[in-house]
Amino acid sequence: MTINILAVDDEKDMTRLLQRTLEPELDCSVTKVFSGEMALNVLEQAVFDLVICDIKMPGMDGFELLERIRKKYPDLTVVMLTAFGNIESAVKAIKLGAYDFIPKPFEQDEIIFKTQKALERSLLIKENKALKRNKKGLHSLIGKSEPMQRVFDKINLVASSDVTVLITGESGTGKDLTARSIHALSPRKDKSFIPVNCPTIPEHILESELFGCKKGAFTSANRDKEGLFNEADKGTIFLDEIGDIGPSIQTKLLRVLQEKEIKPLGDTKTKKVDVRIIASTNRDLKKKIADNEFRQDFFYRLNVLPIELPPLRDRITDIPMIAEHLVIKHCKKMKKGMKMIAQEVMDLLMKQSWPGNVRELENIIVQGILYSKEDTLQLSDIPLVNSETNHKQVLGFSSKVISSLPYKEAKEKVLHAFNHDYIGAKLTMTGGNITQAAKQCSMDRQGLQQIMKRFGIDPDEYR
Ligand SMILES: Nc1ncnc2c1ncn2[C@@H]1O[C@H](COP(=O)(O)OP(=O)(O)OP(=O)(O)O)[C@@H](O)[C@H]1O
Ligand SMILES: [Mg+2]
Q: Which domains does the chain have, with CATH numbers?
């Protein structure tokens, strides 16, 4: 596990110096921020082992930041950088709960030694907490909206048992993350989680990959081979994109689900396995069943507990949180100074329809971070077309996509997006108050309610 240190100083050179000194010596990752406000923002989104913080900063100074951190994250270790010889501020820092202080300018050895000591303390606290909790999981799946709360409830509900779970949802809605969260919260969390991306493995190889094979089972099988189900024994196997597998594998997997045993290719004996199965698909399996492409009995065995992930356009109130989380995740990954998102950008992000869901949002944010030269992501950094000013987009859809659809379908799609965007924005502004939102639309409450009903707009999502 990487050690994460947050360096807070309005002097960018100082944060850079801390990064250059500490990262190679302590095998850690240093995230740089340049104000107290940014530090608090980042702390809300990611977990850090240590904060190294300057005292004199414009806006919120180091003492205020320290006090806020002590209140909100009492276990987090904070070391303050103090001006050389200023005993008073060093004493004040310790009184306010800093673990240690380092006078500036510092020697390389001194900062490394003191940071190491501080990290040892963090580690101890962490181990104690882990012992008490012994549970981890949902932190990377973000969302406060009503539909996501329902998803979290279901994840918690299924995690402790061994029931088979089928996760459905459009591409990029977080199916993979959901499967990992279930495993991480389950009693199997210390055993393997084996993801299998079904469509990427050719059908004739998939069987031996999953169940293993005996030497000589086919021409290139020159030795016995264990399959992925074996590897996942006592753990979880995640059959990703299960809607795309052919009928013969469906039949074989059905047997595993029923009998809890596998038969390696070319073997005469079966073998018991203790594997929890989670499957996912972005396909409409009911339609595939109707088209005779998916076995109905297999579907029922898989669909014991379905979790449906809502598309991002149906949870626009989650977009700011997810976007901020993604900015922090990728600034850290790319080793860039931490950035914030300008309000105008956030407004625009909330107006898009996101056909590629969170994955598409993530791509846009990664590109934004790459383009941006400032501490804040601006509209010019974001490769999105503002639908109000550019006609290449129709409410977030490319006009190419829209014009390729039959008239009725295109109209319905645009109307749906328009109503969700327009009414969603009014409901967001009024905290889900329908009467006030209706006023802002210059219409009566009943009329607005009818439209909301027609387009499936749930006011609770905005409260
Ligand atoms: N609620 C969320 N909070 C934070 N990050 C998310 C959330 N949902 C998805 N992501 C991120 O978005 C990306 C896509 O998510 P994921 O791979 O889980 O989606 P998927 O439904 O499996 O997509 P696909 O159908 O394309 O395989 C990942 O990088 C994931 O970390
Ligand atoms: Mg996936």
A: 3-133 (3.40.50.2300), 139-310 (3.40.50.300), 315-384 (1.10.8.60), 394-463 (no CATH)
